[in-house]
Amino acid sequence: MAPQTTWQILVAAFPRLLSYGIRVTIPLAFLSFALGLVIAVIVAMIQYADVKGLRQLCRFYIWLIRGTPLLVQLYVVFYGLPSVGIMIDAFPAAVFVFAFNEGAYMAETMRGALESVSRGQMEAGYCVGLSYLQIMFHIVLPQAFRTAFPALSNSLISVVKGTSLAATITVMEMFRQAQVINGVYYRSLGLYAETAVIYLAFCTVITWLQHKGEKRLSAYGGNR
After folding, report:
1. Which domains does the chain have, with CATH numbers?
2. Pairing with 8, which of 73, 118, 167, 195 sits 20 to 30 Å away (CA)?
3. 3-state secondary structure string, the chain?
4. For residue range 91-125, what is the model confidence (pLDDT) as tens digits?
């Protein structure tokens, strides 16, 4: 017999919501964040190196992405591109959009972190015979990541919460499952509140890991 009371519905729905959260929402968030971080580092390095032409292109990308809503970007990619013959499945489309969206914000974070590293370290690296890329990857970027770590962690939390928008392009993630269950039992307040609690739990774990990471980085910096 199907559960009738709100409490029974919530108890029955919790494992299903949590399952989709772990199997779909978290992978979607982490894949998007990882790809976005790669984009951010590349864009930030181009701006830091002041590569003519490419720097203007990076500034245009940041301006465009930060100036348009994420929901609109999702619709353009998933619903708009098929009109010009480009078909992308829902999950890859969500990863693509979330990555490029968050990458624009993280690029500014990384640019600021790179610029906080003394230029004298670049000169010192050249003096000992290191190439530009060696200096960047072995000297500058490690320090920049330590500076940017709190902001990047906040970006990851933002991505986790933002994955709920993937429901609008038919990705069967946690929020979409809440909508499906609510379509059967019509317990909007309870089901969406329960979903919010699971998102809160995910973000709390990330926040805890962030604090642990900051302590480790602070200890490392203090021992240098």
Report:
1. 6-223 (1.10.3720.10)
2. 167
3. CCCCCHHHHHHHHHHHHHHHHHHHHHHHHHHHHHHHHHHHHHHHHHHHHCCCCHHHHHHHHHHHHHCCCHHHHHHHHHHHHHHHCCCCCHHHHHHHHHHHHHHHHHHHHHHHHHHCCCCHHHHHHHHCCCCHHHHHHHHHHHHHHHHHHHHHHHHHHHHHHHHHHHHHHCCCCHHHHHHHHHHHHCCHHHHHHHHHHHHHHHHHHHHHHHHHHHHHHHHHHHHC
4. 999 999 999 999 999 999 999 999 998 888 888 88
